[in-house]
Each structure stands twice: as structure tokens, then as C-alpha cells.
Amino acid sequence: MDVIEHIPADQRPNLFANISRLATADASMVLTYPSPEYQQYLMEENPSELQLIDNVIDIQAILAETAPLDWKLKFFSYIDVWHYNQYVHAVFVRSLGSSPKPPEPSTLFQRIASRIDRAIFRPRRLKKYAEKPFSNE
After folding, report:
1. What percent of the chain clears pLDDT 90, i.e. is strictly above it?
2. Does the predicted TM-score (pTM) go above 0.85?
3. Pairing state of beta strands 28-34 and 87-93?
4. Number of CB atoms found within 10 A of residue 112's CB
5. For residues 82 and 41, is the Cβ–Cβ distance under 8 A?
6. Superfamily the domain 4-99 falls into
7. Which distant-in-sequence residues (6+ apart) come within 8 Å of 17 by Cβ?
8. 28 with 89: CB under 8 angstroms?
């Protein structure tokens, strides 16, 4: 979180290669960083807020660096923190739609509870945390 902008651009491919080497096939990678617009604003209006290495991160550059390593963008959004569209949240996954399924519960009660969860509660969790993770709904 809030680190990728401090990695020199020429070293990011090596960073992503190392992460990929350590990550499982169904891993997720979350990047949170200042938006390009906010970084530009700081550079022009308040450079004292910047650190020694504080790059403007373009999602297209990240996509180009992660694509050869089989990372796919699953979620991308601008987020308001103290200012409008101040940060970016980007979630990358190694394999879209191929998450391993949990083992089936063994007892009848567990199987019924699991089916109820999949039918009723899981869709609500997905809507709340995956589709609209940063909304006020």
C-alpha cells in the first residue's frame, strides 16, 4: 500500500517479477498509490510534500509491466481520501475466474449452511466488497 510510487520506474518490472515468483497461481495483488493528477498537483503546488522518489504512476505502465507475468486488472478506482480522486486502488489477479473452490462440508448441517451462504449471503458480500468496495451504500 502506498509504495509503488517510490520504486524507480526501471526497477518495477523486477519487483513485479519477484512478486510473481513468490505468488501462488490464484494470488491477488493490491496497489494503492496517489493518483497521477494528485502527484502532478503536488509537483506544481506543494513539492515539499513529495519524497525523494515520488513517481507519477500511470495505470497503462503498470499494465504493460504486469501483463507478461500473467497479472490481470480486476478492479480499478479513484478514491477520495482528503481530496477528490486523490488515490488509486488497483487489484490484480493471476487468474480471473479460476479461484479454487473450498472443500464441501461433511455434515448435513454444514452442507445446508454452505448452500444458504452461497445462495444468499455470498452474493451480498460480493456486491458490498467486490463490486462497490468504496461506496457508502
Report:
1. 43
2. no
3. antiparallel
4. 11
5. no
6. Vaccinia Virus protein VP39 (3.40.50.150)
7. 69
8. no
For the chain, domain boundaries? 4-99, 101-137
Q: Could you report the per-residue pLDDT of 21-66, keeping only the tens digit for each?
A: 999 888 999 999 999 999 888 888 888 888 888 889 999 999 999 9
78-104 b/e with 16+ CB inside 10 Å = b?
A: eeeeeeeebbbbbbbbbeeeeeeeeee
* DSSP-derived secondary structure for 104-128: PPSSHHHHHHHHHIIIIIHHHHIII
Residue 34, all three cell numbers: 496517489
Q: Which of 49, 17, 10, 56 is nearest to 33 (CA)?
A: 56
Q: What is the 3 state secondary structure string of 56-106?
A: CCCHHHHHHHHHHHCCEEEEEEEECCCCCCCEEEEEEECCCCCCCCCCCCC
Return d(Cα 106, Cα 123) in angstroms, integer: 23
Cβ of 38: how many Cβ atoms within 10 Å?
21
